[in-house]
Amino acid sequence: MTVEWIDGFEIKANVENNEIIISANREGMLSLARHLTALADGVPGDHIHYDEHNALEEGSAELIIERTK
After folding, report:
1. Where are the domains of the chain?
2. Contact, 38 vs 1, CB < 8 A?
3. Going by C-beta distance under 8 Å and a sequence separation of 6 or more, which residues neighbour residue 29?
4. What is the C-alpha separation between 46 and 55, in angstroms, rounded?
């Protein structure tokens, strides 16, 4: 599975009071939309890892999105 990023993306993931908050600029939202589309077109078990070392802003919580059935 290939995921595409839109130049200038900024995405942050935080956990506060047992809630996951994903904040992103326009390019980040469009990038996430492409990733979700790629996952939807994939097979069960496909997943994407996001963390501050490969995509998210510094201080972000690790985020994994997985395709099920």
Report:
1. 1-33+60-69
2. yes
3. none
4. 18
Structural tokens at position 3: 């995921």
| pLDDT at position 13 | 97
Residue for token pair 């990038």: 31
The CA distance from 25 to 11, in Å, is 7
Phi, psi angle pair for 26, to nearest 5°? -55, -45
pLDDT digits (tens, 9 = 90+) for 22-56: 999 999 999 999 999 999 999 999 999 999 999 99
Q: Which two tokens stand for residue 10?
A: 């900024």
Residue 15 has pLDDT above 90, yes or no: yes
How big is the chain, counted in residues? 69
Amino acid at 38: A
pLDDT of residue 45: 97
